[in-house]
Amino acid sequence: MPHDLAGSAAPMQRQKLEDALRPAWGDLRVFLLCARNRSFGRAADVLGVPATAMMRKIDKLEDDLGCKLFSRDEAQLTLTGEGRALLFDVEQMERLSLNVARRARAPAEVSGTVRIAVTEGPGNFWVLPRLITFERTYRNIMVELRCVAGCAEVPRQEADISLQVERPSDPDLIATKIGRLHIHAFASKAYRDAYGLPTSLDELKHHRIVKQDGVPHGDGTYKRILGVDSLEGIVGISTNSSVAVLYAVEQGAGIGFLPSSVIALGAPLVAVDLGVNHQLDLWLCYHRQYRDSDRHRLMLEWLKSIFDPKVYACFRDEFIHPDELTPLMVGSREHFGLQNYVAPKPFPTEPTTT
Q1: Structural domains in the chain?
Q2: What are phi and psi of 233, to 5 degrees?
Q3: Single pTM value for the model
Q4: Helix 81-105 and helix 294-306, axial crossing angle in degrees, nearest 10
């Protein structure tokens, strides 16, 4: 064989080998579903195929990559170190592909303002970080985001769309359940080291609580959960702000009730297992008139996507322990986590003057 032909054949063979080893997006999507559902059976239900087909896909993907992605037992699938690293990369691929798809579907002339009202915690820590990416995709849409402590006033035309934890009774509104918040008890590591952690509701009565006011976290809810007639001597700080609760708990002020995803998103807290959890359904609400508005349809589709329980395990109907959520939300933590949450660090003691 002439030397120049032999030299050109080698790169072609290497390219063929690389193409053969490169996993297809369909195989990676199967991996993504298995990682998020922690089960071949549940992942198979999403695609409507037999569980054995999912197992064969994962077996082939592991063979192609030359590493184990899951530790398997009868109860569930658990990501290995290589699996967690791949999950991070595949979630990035998914997010970029969704952006491409949205651009392709969006009419070029879509523009105008969309007013969204959302409860404060999800608004600040879930919607807003992702809204920055949305804005880069849809440059002609202006979003007015109102983070509110209670329910948004969509019927009063204060918002076009609301995301709230109470189903509206107004018949003129369209309301769709898009997920569920699981509320769990948390404390800082400093609080744990100083005071220990309660293991039951009865022991919780001897600790300090950071309480969130307002619907549905009124005094009656706390009294009912704790089985007490009065919160005097138990509650150290009471606030209407979920952001303030997170900050106070992080700073060691007491035990607070927060969404189960806070550890998975990077907050330096520990879960307090009391044998009880609280659930709040998330309702997407909007006026019927906005069904024919391109910009509102885009926003509704986008909001449903970022709260999709099939993608984000923290919004599933079933409760997943906060510690077990961490490997399921690697991408969310890396890109939209709480590590860069900016809050003042108080002095251990107030400075004295002489």
Answers
A1: 3-99 (1.10.10.10), 110-180+280-336 (3.40.190.10), 181-279 (3.40.190.10)
A2: 85, -10
A3: 0.70
A4: 170
